[in-house]
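In the previous chapter we treated chains in isolation. Here, by contrast, the input contains two separate entities that must be folded as one system, with a combined length of 398 residues.
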Amino acid sequence: MMEGTASGGKSRPVETELELIKQAQQGDRRAFGQLVRLHREGAVNVVYRMCGDAELAEEAAQEAFIRAWTNLPRYKPRSPFRNWLYRIATNVAVDVLRSQKETVDVEAVEVPDAESGPEVLAEVRERGERVRQAVLALPPASRAVVVLREYEDLSYKEIADTLGIPIGTVMSRLNYARTLLRQTLTPYMEGA
Amino acid sequence: MKEHATQWLGTYLDGELRGLRLRWVEGHLQECAVCGSELEALAQLRTLLQESPAIEASTPPEQFVAQVALRLPRRQEQPAARRALELSWRMVPVGLLFTLAFVQTAFTIAGVLQMALSMGLGGEVGALIFPGAGVSLPDVFSLSQASLATAVGSVVELIQAGGALAWLPVLYLSSLVVIGLLYWSWLASWWARRRHQQLMASNNRG
């Protein structure tokens, strides 16, 4: 049985997802619920990295799943469901960004617990926040490419399929985004 | 050093370089300290980005799934019925092609029969079915070689001659016209549908 990579790094049989997709395409809401469960984490994270607000990200991810449900009869499993869903999620995030000019919510940032002292924790928190702000400062088109590459580990081809752009554009947007990020984050890169 | 590999370093780091370009960048990196430090900086940037914490979802997974389920709209059509409809719609040109082949075959046979009867091969029965005329069905078939006026004239002459087979050319031409009209209507609806889908897709992209 072939193995596929689920969002969040877990493995599951490809057939299972395909069966769920077929059932959901025939109107099975329970099967679609399973798909939501499988891809919730990835979709929420994509939107979160795009818009930078935890609450908005969950709401927008829900909207992405609803759009996916509506368009599911037209989905053809030539490309992975995850990529198709991320494309919708990215578009929803861009819509959210358009409607909410100010999305940065510093207080909403959660930093994982560490067995370090408060100073180290504060430093990690600050670095994480700077990174988040630097990513948010990128133009949405470049940000989407960075998010899919750096956080969701999609290949260039998958990013191209997901965003509907040529691979050359993926490369140029990544180069551009990395140049901008390095300009902003150089002081923090030594400690990375 | 002739040229730096700066523009390829990100792609190299992502493992997306192949073939000659990959070998060139690998070779270049062994010689060029500038590109080496660029690559190191890009790797540091990647580490920094990936250290940035992911979202800690405040909604438990089951609650999230339930919230999505509550918001799911009802589908307008049953996908199974829709697929059957879709398939039938796509098969329309094939059906028309088969119909055209059938019409051509039927009328070719009728033409041969008419020619045989007009040559007196059918005896008295033939004379009854086809009293005789200077024009035969095959004359009408060869429209490509005749002008429209000649063809219409031939048809009129054939009908005036009377007989059971006299209406065959009219039927034949009418069938062609109907098949042609159906095909053009299908093409027009296909084009309109495609436009609609493109609009829907662009709306979904936001």
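The mean pLDDT of chain B is 79. The interface with chain A takes residues 7, 10-11, 14, 16, 41-42, 44-59, 61, 64-65, 67-69, 71-73, 75, 78-80, 82, 197, 204-206 of chain B (CB under 8 Å). Compare these points with the single-chain example from earlier in the chapter.
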